Please model this.
Amino acid sequence: MKPSTPESQHLEPQHTKTSQEVPLQKAQSTFWKDTFQLALIIIFVVIPFRVFVAQPFIVSGTSMQPGFQDRDYLIVDQLSYRLGDPERGDVVIFRYPNNTKVFYIKRIIGLPGDTVIVKDEQVYIEPLGSTERITIEEPYIDSFRPEDSKTTLMSDQFYVMGDNRLVSSDSRVWGPLDREFITGRAFLRLFPLNQIGIFPEDYKSYPDSL
Model:
């Protein structure tokens, strides 16, 4: 019997990586690396930014007309009130005290310690420690529901009202707003495009005594 030669032996085919498999493995490695980096950005940048710095808010309803319309798109500054106190005239976003899943947008009228008097179609303020009654001028409103009320605020309370006084549900209806419910102030309006601006509808021209 003729011995077999190396050339006549059956050789098992050896598996070698093709030119297509190597780039595929690199692509998969890059995908998981990019996914991991994106997850880190979301966890350490995006989420803290949304929770502590700013978040979007869409106006719902007509209680802040004429300055704010239904569906206006705002960015809420959540950082300023961690460093300082809300001021009279600020437009703020807060959790509705009677249902904290709902967010409202209103304007701050009364500060802690103030006595806020609403009489007919006018708002008056008696600052803490003073018996002087100061008239609040409000050029940003064009409607008012005639009524009479008098409210003295505690050290952590604010009096808020909607600019559309005819329809707004605010401190006249459900009482003072505790500081803990305030999320932030209206920092930037992005929509509608023809009304883009920083601190939209802010008003600070109150008497010096306030």
